[in-house]
Amino acid sequence: MSMSTQHGGGNRKPSTRPAAGAKPKQGGDEEDRLDEDVELDSVEDVEDSDVSDDLDASDDLDDSDESDKPVTAKPRANPRKSATARKTATAAGKRPVGTRPARTIAPIKVKQGVSWGPIVLFSTVGVLALAIIAFAGYQVYENGLSWQQRADQISGIKDYRKTDKAMVAQRDHVWGPQQYKLSPPVAGNHNQNWMRCEGDVYPAAIANEHALHSLEHGAVWITYNPSLPADQVEKLAKRVRGNDFMLMSPYPGLDKPISLQAWGYQLKVDNADDSRIGEFIKALRQNASLEAGTPCSSGDFITEPGTTPRDLGKDGAPAPQQGN
User: What's the burial of 261, exposed, middle or buried (CB within 10 Å: 0-12/13-18/19+)?
Assistant: First the structure.
C-alpha cells in the first residue's frame, strides 16, 4: 500500500519579490535592500528544493514498501548563513553583486605662474625711493659747499685767485686802453664805465676795459670765436638773454671756440652743449663780485660795441676813483 503526501503548494510561502514595474520602497540603504532580495531568493530556492525533496521522498516510500530502510532527508541550507557570508565579503572590500565601484576623482594640480605685477611695482617704488634719497643727500652736500668750492669742482676751470693773486688784486679805474696778461682778461685795472650786463647779447666785439668793470660787479662774460656755428651761438645767447649779471660778445682771435669769464675765473670749452657752462654760471654769477650789491642795469654803463674804450666823463670830469 502506497502512501501519498499532498503537495499542492499550500505550504509554500508567497514570494516577497516586488512585482514587475513596481517602485521600490523608500528608505534604508541600497546595499541592505540588495542583500534582502538575495536572502529572499535564497529562501525561496531552499523552499522549492524542500518541496521537491518531499515529493521524491514520497515516491521512494511508495516504491520501497517492502524495504524497512529509514529514509534520511537532505539537510536544508540556512539562508542566513548565505546572507552573512555576503555581508562578510562586502566588509572585506569585495564589491557586492549589482553595485558599481565608486569613482575616485584625483585632485587637479594647477601650476600658478609668478605674479610679476607686485614685484615690478615694489621694485619701481624702491628705485624711486633710492633716487629721492640720493638726490636729497646730494642737495645737502651741495648746500653745504661754498661757492668757491663748487667752482673749484668744475673740470678745466682756471682759478687765478689762487694762482695769480697779484693780477687779481689789480682793480684800479683808469682811462684809455690797457694791456692784459690773459685774452680775454679776468682781472686788472679797467675803465670807469662798464658794459651793461643785464642779459645783453652784443653782435660785435666790446672793449676789455668795459667788460672787466662788469665782472667786478659780479657779471659772467661769455665770449666766442666768430667762426662758431650760428646754432651754437644761439644756444649761448639763450643762456644770457633776460638774465641779469650776464653779457655775451664775439671775441676775435680766441684760441678756443668758447670762453667764460668771472672775476678771477676762466673756463674754455669747445661746444655750447657742454654742461660745465651751466655749472660755471651757477657757481660764479654775482658770487664772484668784488662790489656786492652794485647793479649792472644803472649808472655810467656802455651799450655800444667796439674794442676802444669810451671814456665817459673824462673831459671836464673828475679823475676816476680807485676801486670803484
Answer: buried
Does residue 102 sit in helix, strand or coil? coil
Closest CA to 241 of 197, 284, 276: 197
Burial class (CB in 10 A: 0-12, 13-18, 19+), 309: buried
Residues 263 and 186: beta-carbon distance below 8 Å: yes
Amino acid identity at 102: A
Alpha-carbon distances, residue 171 vs 11, 93, 259, 297 (angstroms)? 151, 116, 21, 21
- Tell me the mean pLDDT in the region 146-151: 96
Q: Same domain, yes or no, for 163 and 259?
A: yes
CB-based contact 219:261 (threshold 8 Å): no
As given in the structure block, the three cell numbers for residue 222 are: 661769455
* Degrees to nearest 5, angle at CA 164 with 179 and 280: 90
Q: How many domains does the chain have?
A: 3
Type of residue at 42: S
Residue 234 scores a pLDDT above 70 = yes
51-61: pLDDT as tens digits: 445 444 444 44
Which residues are CB-contacts of 270 (< 8 A; sequence separation ≥ 6)? Answer: 256, 257, 258
Q: In the structure, what pLDDT confidence band is assigned to residue 286 with cuts at 50, 70 and 90?
A: very high
Residues 163 and 142 in one domain: no
In the DSSP assignment, the letter for residue 181 is S
If asked whether residues 290 and 194 sit together in one domain, one would say: yes
pTM as predicted: 0.58
Neighbours of 155 (CB within 10 A): 10
pLDDT tens, residue by residue, 104-139: 776 666 666 677 888 888 888 888 888 787 766 655
At CA 277, angle to CA 271 and CA 283, rounded to 5?
A: 170
Beta bridge partners of 258: 224, 269
Domain holding 130, by residue range, is: 118-146
